[in-house]
Specification:
Elements: H1 2-30, H2 33-38, H3 41-63
Helix pairs in contact: 1-3
Length: about 60
């Protein structure tokens, strides 16, 4: 029984990781690619930390509750 629990815990962890990746992809997909292509490197550098913080906040609200 302990072995089954360990396997299920590993599966659960992998599913959590997959969900985080999928939610990050969803955030990225909501941004129109034309918008990203039109930004300069300086603009991308300035918005990347903000976007990263927003994704972390989403993850915290979804998975840490």
């Amino acid at each position: 029984m302990k072995q089954l629990i360990k396997v299920l815990q590993k599966i659960n962890k992998q599913l959590e990781i997959s969900n985080k990746i999928a939610s990050s992809k969803l955030v990225i997909d909501t941004i129109e690619s034309n918008t990203i292509k039109s930004l300069t490197d300086k603009q991308l550098e300035s918005i990347t930390p903000i976007a990263t913080d927003k994704i972390k906040s989403i993850h915290k609200n979804i998975y840490d509750s």
